## 1
Amino acid sequence: MNSAIADAAAFTPAERELRRSISWTGAFWVASGVPPLVLFSIGGIAGTTGTPAFAIWAASMMMGFIQSFVYAELAGLFPNKSGGSSVYGAAAWFRYAKPVSPLLVWCNWIAWTPVLSLGCTIAAAYILNAVDPDPNSALRTWSLASGTLGSVSFSLNAAFFIGVALMLAAFAIQYRGISGTARVQQVIGLLVIIPLLVIGVAPLLKNGVNWENFSPFVPLAAAYEPAPGAWNTAGWTLVLGGMFIAAWSTYAFETSICYTSEFKNPKTDTFKAIFYSGLLCMAVFLLVPFTFQSELGLTGMLEPSIADGSGVAAALARMVGGGPIIASGLVMLMILALLLCIMTAMAGASRTLYQGSLDGWLPKYLGRANRHGAPIAAMWTGLIVNLFLLAIACADATSFFFILAVSNCGYIIFNFLNLNSGWIHRIDNAHLERPYKAPTAIIAIGVLFAFVNAMFLGAGAKVWNPWALWAGLIAAGAIIPVFLFRHYVQDRGQFPAQMLRDLQIDGAVARRRAGALPYLTLAAGVATVILANFIFQL
């Protein structure tokens, strides 16, 4: 314990602490980059599932909203932590299986950080289309270097270098801390969210609902093929694949509680931030996919440019009946929306690494903040990793969705562990103050949803890439040796004093009141993934 205290004292407050400088509205605007995530996979989900696509978005959004009440309770337990619900959930698991805690934090990070590279890829495609519409031009076909990495490709093409510039711009904005980021996000958020809501409503008011585009209500016979299928094993596999990838967007507003240690009044701000962010996401994720399907129909949704995201702006322009000026404005809207997503991801993901370091789960160097209160070491780490991912995502749509699927494997693992941390905290940490306490029924539903998510993982990842599940599990497990080195070599088996103090633990880590239940939960989760992977086949 003494070594941990000494390590913490080695940094001055200005170097290592975030600052309480925002209210829940600031977090709401930082999280306003979540609703535009619908634009990342709206074409992919429609292309793989067909007419049930709108229902998949609605069901996934309702699951995410219910789960958020569990996360709201977790956030209230730790008013001095940043980094989001994975950090709060990690504090529940460390008594039972220490490596599970860094796994939980790491999986949340690998879920969020690729938003930078994926968002920059789509934004760069829009910019290139505007500058040079000819797909066969020298600019569009040029590449400094290209090749393959296993089942994916990479390319240092024009889109890559435009993506790098966008990524650096987001980095520069966030360098000055959360309050400045929130102000920029508010402006961009208003420019993006209001038009998104208008797009979701205006075509329905103008043209009504084209109900024929919602039938027959069966999945496709095969992904990206217009022939309707049936509710058989292959059909259900495609639907579960849609639920798997939709979760990456619809659950993501939990990022609004990444800033607990930066809230002026965390007791009230945490619940308000996640609740109102959830309501905003519900409006967008229910309206936009429904209107999208009503206007485009199955044939329109199966267009290649819709699947890879590059043609979504043109489709939106047709939906609202706009001419070239409206179309150009919607291209700008898409670029701003993607920049909003990028900034949200960078803000949340960097704080997850930062707090994970302070709590003893991740490498020490990540626990450094600059003089503006920004987690600078974590930001640089995310930037470097995403430069590598950007080169892959810019190569082709297959590589893009491979990154998305692997990323979401981490996100589903995080959600499984985190939803179960709700009842573990109830048992082991009943003594902690809870500014917001979720109904016990919600905690129970959260456990059920944890296993439903595990089924999505086992059955659905293969829809996007046959190797996605295994690559995702390898990426998740990569943190275990890093944690073992940090904990047993650098910290000599002791946790930082701050982590134990937040749990109001003095001395030895004791009181495993949940008994064998956490271990049985882990075993049941693994079994669910394996069984789902075996049963559901294309």
## 2
Amino acid sequence: MSMVASQKRPLTSAPQTPVLPVQPRFIFLGLFKRWIWIAVFVAALLQSLFFFSPANLFAVVFVLFAWGLADKFVLTAFNLSKYTFSTVIILGFSLTQYVLPLIFTLLEGKPITYNLKFPYSVFIHSLLALVVFITSHHLYKKWREGLAGRLYYKLSLVLKRNYFFATPSDLQIWIIGFVGLAGMAVTYLSGSHFDGTAEERGTVAKFFQGLVPYAYTPLFLLLRPLFSLKRPPFVKPPTLKVMIFASMLLFVGMGGNSRGLFMTGISAVGIAYLIGLLLGKFDHNIFNFKNALLAGLGLWIITGPLADLGTSMVIVRAQRSNLTSTELVLKTLEVLQNKKAIKQFRAMNTVIEVRDWDETYFDNIFLSRFCNLKYNDASLELAYKMGKPNDDMLSYSIDKFWAILPLPVLNFFHIKVDKLTVNASSYGDYLYDRSGGKGGLGGFRTGHFAGTGMATFGWWYLLWLGIGIIPLFLLVDLFVMYYQQGAVMTTCLSLAGLIQMNFFFTLFSVSNFSESVVNIYAFLMRGWIQDALLYWFILLALRKLRLF
């Protein structure tokens, strides 16, 4: 296979006129923006009519304003083509913090401010964060095309010379997928998975845990135009084989009692397909009878059987430490057949209780882990209880930052950090504990960067957010190969980035990453390097075995 470096050299400077003429392949982008605005306006009107209150009206106005900013400054053909993954990060934040909560709370018969104790603060902080993201993205593009142009070119050349943009064959993709599946099985089906943190399980366990995202690689065989350097002749995608493989992921997820294991892959492919449509990689004429049936079937599966399965897994979660993986699968399937128990569990969890930590927002168990504004609200509530930036929160954040480094590195630089203790809790746990909560450490509550930021840095957290996100944008866009000839923009995405699509999309909404602005700097120090090296190691192994 010829090396990618033989391809035409990408431009290192931005075109003089960033507003490019509309190309036929960007028709879906215009349609998407129109549909989103229609949906947002309709939902905003109905939210204002059916759930009128000053707080809800305030939230609706902020959603309209925020999406207007995202529509104008982020969702453009040029950004999507040249700065794909950094644009996905801001687009994901805009959709999960504004558009989707507005629409889906309405569909569930709730106001967008449902169960929010500090709705004004939630939307003010989110809007300020969005403004920071958009401003930093603008500065990043100027920096990359100017002072950082040579650095970006050299780093991207290293990736190209090491086959990051070489188009893998189907066999290679399947091998990578089964390697990831093995890592998933070892991590989530081993008897020690629920006994302590990854640090306690050792370096080998952490290596297998790092392989988990690669289990989703075969799913992207359905989206080959996204990572193919050349437009291949039409080949029918191996849909049946991919569905069988997805079923294997489903059973591993049940055995590990983690609905995220299979939902992450599904959402990553769905988001990647949307980005492919926006880039014009796929036919924009998606509205026909066949696709309508498939979309309806997919929606029914996600909101019906998969939602029931996710609820069943939560019901049996309390027993997972005492059951083997096989027993967990059987127990989950047993509960899945008990529709009455599932209904009662959901009814119980929709009742808002007076408690120190409450995550109630969406009824749908998957939406609640995708775009849940209650995490923002709960973290801000705890920060307000503390009253001002807390020295203990700052010390914990510093320790959490250093704890990402391997123990030999910490010892070499004489950095004293108890990694086992620090990593045994989340930012949400520590914030809960410092604000007066009892027995909170070790519960791994999902905090949010607004609350933990206020408790650690005060309003200065926005500055740390804006500074750190600029080099992060550069790193994630290294997985994008972009060419421009005249007005024609061509984009190829590396599989190393595609398999992280769900991670990028939810980076600052509901994820372990979104808990603190400090995680940005941890990602810069180790996260991106570790992911890139692991992908390179897999490619190297394939080449040594003459499978690449």
